[in-house]
Amino acid sequence: LRFDEKVRVVLFKSEVKGVFCAGADLKERAKMDDAEVAHFVKRLRNLMDEIAALPVPTIAAIDGYALGGGLELALACDLRVAASSAKMGLIETTRGLLPGAGGTQRLPRCVGVGLAKELIFTGRQIDGQQAFSMGLVNHTVPQNSQGDAAYQRALTLAKEILPQAPFAVKMGKLAINRGMEVDIASGMAIEGMCYAQNIPTRDRQEGMAAFREKRPPHFIGK
Fold it and tell me: Which GO terms describe its molecular function (predicted)?
């Protein structure tokens, strides 16, 4: 996906009705020794980092349970859409664990330190409406009879992104992600570097021409 120039947005959805991702199989985990557990969690953390590092926008469509590593997967995405009936939580402390695939880092960056601590310390599960009210998800929608309301809303969101200049969107994502990790002066420098890369693109020239000619732009990602 990272190297496919035709990919513009990546949506994550489940083929299992009522479940986005239920997290690790604890019965399988119980059969592992300590070294195997550490290796498993390290690989899982690396996977989440790979997802977060995808250059194009990513959207998690949460139509059911997103628990433990399942919520960590959603947190690794740029945007999240949830059915109001979905259940989300970093429930690791209820099993004698703590989040190990990015949850302790991505949740506070998403909802703030205080709320993240409360959710992680209690292992509480929240529904889609609660998740929306605290900023954990971008949109919440009533579930439909097919059980894919979040996916349908995520598709609509993806279709809003698709007409925009692909390289500019990628640079926007890069500037935000890198800038959030540094002070604002350094972030401004990062924005400047990303903007400089966008200046010579054909899409920027097309955007200006379309504005002058009062027509929709036709971006090609170059």
Answer: enoyl-CoA hydratase activity
From the list 66, 72, 83, 158, the catalytic residue is 72
Number of H helices, E strands in the chain: 10, 8
Report all structural domains of the chain as residue ranges with CATH numbers, in order of start.
10-162 (3.90.226.10), 166-213 (1.10.12.10)
Q: Is-catalytic flag, 15?
A: no
Active-site residue (options: 60, 61, 74, 92) = 92
Task: Enumerate the β-bridge partners of residue 61.
Answer: 81
State the 10-residue block means of pLDDT for the chain, 222 residues long: 93 96 85 89 94 97 96 98 97 93 96 97 97 97 95 98 96 96 96 96 93 92 90
Give the angle subtended at the CA of 180 by the CAs of 38 and 204, to the nearest 5°.
120
Q: Give residue 150's pLDDT.
A: 97
Identity of the amino acid at 105? Q
pTM of the model: 0.93
Q: Which residues, 6+ apart, have CB-to-CB distance to 109 below 8 Å?
A: 180
Query: Is 92 among the residues known to form the active site?
Result: yes
